[in-house]
Design brief:
Protein name: ABC1 atypical kinase-like domain-containing protein
Mean pLDDT: 75
Strand content: 5-15%
Radius of gyration: 31 Å
Number of strands: 11
Domain ABC1 atypical kinase-like: 187-433
Low-confidence stretches: 1-47, 61-72, 465-487, 547-565
Structural class: alpha+beta
InterPro entries: ABC1_dom, Kinase-like_dom_sf, Mito_struct-func_regulator
Pfam families: ABC1
Largest sheet: 5 strands, antiparallel
Distance between the termini: 110 Å
Amino acid sequence: MAAAAARGAAAARSPLVLHRHPHPAHHRRLRLLPLVAGGGGGSPPRVGRRIRASREKGRRVGVRVFARYSQAQDFSTRLQDRAGELPKLVEDLLQTSISTGPRGAFRFAQGIQAVLGVGGEWLNDFSKTANTSAGIPAQMQLGLLSPLYLRRLFERMGATYIKLGQFVASAPTLFPAEYVEEFQNCFDRAPPVPYSEIESILREELQQPLDSVYEYIDPVPIASASIAQVHGARLKSSQKDVVIKVLKPGIEDTLVADLNFIYVVARILEFLNPELQRTSLVGIVKDIKESMLEEVDFRKEATNIEAFQRYIDAMGFDRQAKAPFVYRHCSTKRVLTMERLYGVPLTDLDSIRSLVPDPELTLVTALNVWFGSLISCESFHADVHAGNLWLLRDGRVGFLDFGIVGRISPRTWAAMEVFLASFATDDYNAMASALSEMGATGNDINVNEFAKDLEKIFSSIQDLDTEVIVATARTPDATAVSANVVVDDRQMNALFLDLVRVSESYGLKFPREFALLMKQLLYFDRYTRLLAPSMNMLRDERINIGMNRSAAAKENLDEYNWTFS
């Protein structure tokens, strides 16, 4: 009795178990057990086990409550430690809200509508699978945060989130593989804006009558994406054919509102959980914001195009390659007027053969121009899919659409050169060392094991489906070419994701520029298999990968130049 009273007093004094009262039935059961057992001064073994189990359960409950209490105290302590940063956070959030303006409330309402729409899709799909024997599919278990439904939500939210989805798809070093794979399907397609609205933007931007600038503008767009719309036209003064890329109305305000919201969420999360600072969450969001806002400032794209053409001219590539000429007098932040280039994608083998005697030389030229830009140009073209790399009617290689460019650091390029040289010779140990240098995290890496894993990955390149490209490339219709690019992209990204997964298992984290470089190399690998199947693009002496092979490249360019002189 005395012991029981002492235990009761101790429990009453403990603030952690004060409100944890046992169920009355539990008291009755403990009192009755000795009577049921009958006789003897001690409890039977079964009774003793039950009493001990009950005490152990009570201790576990106390530990759990104490852990929660400690976590709450830790969280409170962290907030108190960061109280000095609160004014800066509030100021930052206020400035962001002011810069967002009333558009933020409108986008918030659109966001709720999108969440309800995709949520309805999830509930409908969930109801179909909930009662099946197979159970709930993995892609549904996270609700709207699962890759499939998050991608659908992004597509419903429009331009900003589509671009964000494409960023996720192009950055396997930053995001989980399941999301990178799913966001490969994040299509940037949107219904065209009525020409009357495009015409209004052109008048507002150019500040002069359109018929004084253009002979005509085709009201039917060549292409329409989430951010911009492209129309064919002809200049009045020179009678040159051009394309006009026009930013869709309201897109910039929408981007600013969306990106500010994403920034605010990241800022608050880092404040509440300082450990997120190690992941550079706010830094990543700032990079995304800067990249997206650059993409809607067509003056930046114009600068990228002109820089690339200057590089072509300076290197003596002007008779082998070309970027579209930018007409600055009718280009602004929201309007980009460029020379219209006519040609065929590098996947259209039959058309290429009708334009040049040797498709292999075309590929060699494209490779030399692109590799040279990694070293000698301010930026390199970071999206050389078949829609952006053409053989022009005059036999030159045309580089189109400079909305996505990359800049490579000397350290990354030095490691990349070693990586490419080792890839060319199937030296997987050297490849593993180069990748370890590029993604170094201070961990000790078993280079031999890493090399074996790399060999398994890169041997799968031979299994990529080239026939799909050839079949679709022979169809002149633009939809078929577009479908071909998507298939090509998915296969290559799957291969690159394998490389990232294996590398991360060894503790390596690569810079995003490496992902951009690898993606372009995989595009070129596909073009090689189509246009020059017997050529090894990394071992061919005609191709200049590094500065030490410029003489071989120059000799090859002279040969190509002679072909078209």
